[in-house]
Design a protein that fits this description.
Blueprint lengths: L8 H17 L4 H28 L1 E5 L5 E6 L4
Antiparallel strand pairs: 1-2
Helix pairs in contact: 1-2
Length: 78
């Protein structure tokens, strides 16, 4: 298992989906299930943080009265 902080959003989501799948089968021992749950919670938190970072970088294009782009500004409501 890799360090969660180094995973891309996509890799973390894939691992989270696989982890959930393992938990849903019910075939893991209690100790394995606890470890899977803890890793899954850490993966979820990492994915949420990566999404917040991406949302903060999203900008919207501002337009002049004639419709020409004038620049960008931070997107609101994200």
């Amino acid at each position: 298992m890799s360090d969660i902080q180094t995973l891309s959003f996509e890799d973390a989501m894939r691992e989270l989906e696989a982890t959930v799948g393992k938990l849903e089968t019910g075939e893991a021992t209690l100790e394995e299930s606890i470890a899977l749950y803890e890793r899954g919670a850490a993966l979820r938190a990492h994915c949420e943080a990566r999404l917040r970072e991406a949302e903060e970088r999203v900008e919207k294009i501002t337009l002049a009265a004639n419709g020409q782009p004038t620049g960008t500004e931070p997107a609101e409501g994200l």
